Amino acid sequence: MIDATQLRDLMRSDRAFALFDVREVGEAEEGHILGATFLPRRMIEFRIAHLVPLRATTIVVYDEGGARAELAAATLRELGYSDVEVLEGGTAGWRAAGLTLIDGNNVPSKLFGEKVHDEDHTPGVSAQTIETWQREGRAALFCDIRTPQEYERSRIPSSYSTPGFDVGLCMPDIGDRSVPVVVNCAGRTRSIIACETLRQLGMKEVYALENGTMGWVLAGHALEKGDGLGVIAPTVAGRAKVHPRALELAQSAGAGFVDPKTLEAWIGQRDRGEMDLYVFDARQTDEYDAGHIEGTTILPGALAVQRTDEFMPVRQGQVVFIDDDETRALLASYWLKRMGFPNVAILKGGVKAWTDAGLPLTRGRMRQPPLGLKQATARTEAIDAQELRKVMQETRCVTINVDTSAQFSRGHLPGSSWVPRGWLEQRISALAPGKDTPIVVTCRDGQQSVFAAAALRGLGYRNAFVLTGGLKTIADWPLVEGTDAAAAEAKDVILPPYAKGQAGMRRYLEWETKLTSAHR
Prior knowledge:
Layout: H1 4-12, E1 17-21, H2 25-30, E2 37-38, H3 44-51, E3 58-62, H4 68-78, E4 84-86, H5 90-96, H6 107-120, E5 124-125, H7 127-136, E6 141-144, H8 148-153, E7 159-161, H9 166-169, H10 171-175, E8 181-184, H11 189-200, E9 206-209, H12 212-218, H13 236-253, E10 256-258, H14 260-271, E11 277-281, H15 285-290, E12 297-298, H16 301-306, H17 308-311, E13 318-322, H18 327-338, E14 344-347, H19 350-356, H20 373-378, E15 381-383, H21 385-394, E16 398-401, H22 405-410, E17 417-418, H23 424-431, E18 439-442, H24 448-459, E19 464-467, H25 485-488, H26 501-513, H27 515-518
Parallel strand pairs: 1-2, 1-3, 3-4, 5-9, 6-7, 6-8, 8-9, 10-14, 11-12, 11-13, 13-14, 15-19, 16-17, 16-18, 18-19
Helix pairs in contact: 6-11, 13-18
């Protein structure tokens, strides 16, 4: 157990630690400790090996002051983590100590973006100004720096796709067009960082579209759908021109380099649970899929800057960025160093240096099984679809679904109740008051349900079974769509602000622009 004052002091120290909010993400979004990573209890086995590879790292977990944090801590200890603390009193204890909570998600990155905006005086242009430019016949180049998938769904009319730090690699080519360049994302953070990246690389007339696509919609303009103008891709010559300045930026911020053989050794240490290491491939998805270093995570540099809390909970861990050569990795490292991450490096020479050293690349995306799945499976009893049909016909069994509320609403067995795994121990007695009640646990792919069934067996439910392989194995059964009362009130999904209507967009943008004044 750790109290609020001790946690505050830990957070101010140079010690390596990770802080996790183990409530559902919607609960955490409503008020959490700044710097905490959202790790709902249901996702611990699935994500913890990537988030905290070193089993000796200090981990602090918290909830609202209930039982979930203790259960999460027990899971972590069972998975081999030796230094796990629970925040005494959870968020209630934190507030009682006179400390504040923050709402929103990805707050450290968004706060950083607003600080960059204020300190670097990022030039912005509003949707209304662009409308004036268009009336006056003033040409401009619009660069959408969101992911290709976001660009395809909707975009500013007549914009090109230049995702993430690719816009920096394109700088010599787009600068040659001799027109103002306007960069945009959905809101603010990525466009601020993109604009400042271009300015640092030497572009003179570049602007961040104020409030991104949300600002465009709120100004009364429509977004374009269907086929767009396409991608402005970096050229070999353009990359060569950008690299020296990108190198200068990364070195000025204190980023280092790692050679292929050392990185190979580090990855081995991480995989043995001996090192907190985060290795990110800063290229685009198609480049990654064509061949990447095994054990690396696809995370284009701009997304890495925007979502540090999701992927790098141990700030003192070693971060490595990889590119084909070095350029995007250099830019990502520059920004991460400015955010205050102490140990950031670039793979010297990039993927080419890796292969030149005789080291292999791999294709495809092999997901490692969640930690503890084999042990949990050994503690459960599985039934297949045929046996399930018999049980449901011959007994008054309780059928529960432990998917997310959104997955539950898209399809579940008739008569199933939705029980989030994080709340399972506290809610199961209302559905199955007797320990001899037959219970069948289901989920989409049969993994979450294994952990849930194992927990029920641990509580003494002797007749708790898991559906082998999950609901995807019973395609011939008619599944039911819709929610039940519990799922209708769920807080296990965070909707993006642009999906919350114009009122939701306004609330979000007002919140984001006030971040720096609220956290001085």
